[in-house]
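SAMPLE LOG
Freezer: B-3
Tube label: C17
Construct: single chain, 270 aa
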Amino acid sequence: MFYLNKIFKPVSKIDLKRIGNKNDGGYLLNLKDIEYASNFYSFGIGMSWDFESEIYNLKKNQNKQFKIYMFDHSISNYFWFKNLIISFVELFFLKKKFFNYLLKFFQLKKFIRKKECVLNYLMISPVNLKHANIYKLKTTDLNEILRKEKKERNNFIKIDIEGSEYRILDQLILNQDYLNGLIIEFHDVDIHIEKIKKFIQDFDLNLIHCHVNNCGPIKDERYPTNLEITFSYTGKDNIQQYAKNFELPHKLDMPNNPKLRNDKIIFYDS
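STRUCTURE (predicted):
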């Protein structure tokens, strides 16, 4: 079994839908949040944009105007060029790897050619942090991004930025009146538990789902350190409380790594 602080226990009962990959890169959310949002922000893409692609298809079917903004400084053209060269050198040993990179590159280029999709090669980090300049990276942050938009509650955000999420928690609180949905992956939960507690307590959206990312370390074989958390605003004033004996993982949850354990979650007081 996995043990988590009760702060991570979902507070409301909402029908959930799985969006994205079958394993790592797939998330459970409230479909109504997608329906009502018109701006979607993905912080951290890597080599998987199935989540964003499925959002695109859902919104296209609604026949409403929308935009998908993706941010990831690590997948610039240099990233693809470097990995294609490396895998080409290894071509005789790892043919599949080379062609996978090539296929992914063209799939990404095709996806971002859609008028609703924008890929920004920018690092998500508070723009006043000078340390990022050491690596000559261009940065942006939530304050800067939302400053360009109309102040409406029509923004849905997905965050998976490998630990940098803690640097923008205060910006999420500051801009929470303009958010109708949030998926955030918390890394190193055992180290940052007090920051996370404060964020959840101060954040106005409902915590509707919690999933253990089993790719991360498990402390003392019981306490996971990587969590995927979903927040929802839709239906905030008309929610059903979960029964005390409800269980996680949800029936739609899938292990991030199918070869590793995906145990039942027990919530404890602290």
